[in-house]
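Sorry, I am new here, but would you mind making up a protein's amino acid sequence and the tokens describing how it folds?
***
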Amino acid sequence: MYKCYLLGKNIKNSRSGEIYRELSEKDNIDFLYENADVNLEEIPKFVRFIKKTGARGFNVTAPYKSEIIKYLDDMSEAVNALNAANTVINENGKFVGYNTDVYGAKRAYENFLRDGKTLILGRGGAARALIYAFKDFDLTLYVRDSSQNDVLLKIKPDLNFIYDLKNCDFTNVINATSVGFNEDRTIITKKFDSQKTAVDIIYTPERTLFLSEMEKQGVEIKNGYDMLYYQAVEAYKLYKGEDND
């Protein structure tokens, strides 16, 4: 039996459990997956619980993908580069961190994004995974200040930054923030002149205000469910002991 968890905050609407149930039923194996919705100060207790019970591991979602780093005994190259882990495997009491978001982003969007300039909104764990996955693209990051920009430049040295969206133009726009999660808010309401696609890593609701506005203006849209699904497929392999990164 595999016993695994999802560590995060405000995660009652997560669909990760559905995906793991689907995958494990196909393999005909016992795979128990539960949410661990905890506050920051409760993470040490959660870590002790995983080690004490011998659970196979846990996924990590916002806002703890960087916070969990301090509890790892080893980590993959991607985790080291991004300073963000979304999957932790318990190897006989030692925690090994992986980032399957990179694979998830690549699989979900590589055949969707068009050639041209791409704008990413945000700089959290998901944004870093997108930068890593598409570092060969012409990427620009929209941020409110210059803090942590040096960390992001280690992922992609020629990454561009903007602090104002006026007088800009992009082919692809990706919302990698939580703006729009179960709320009618969006950072961008009007499409750029050359814009062809809009991606929102949020999947609840399936069509955020951002995606709805972009679709009305003739932009092709895609939400975050495929990224969630494919990163879970990779994490599932890790839980079963199959090597990947």
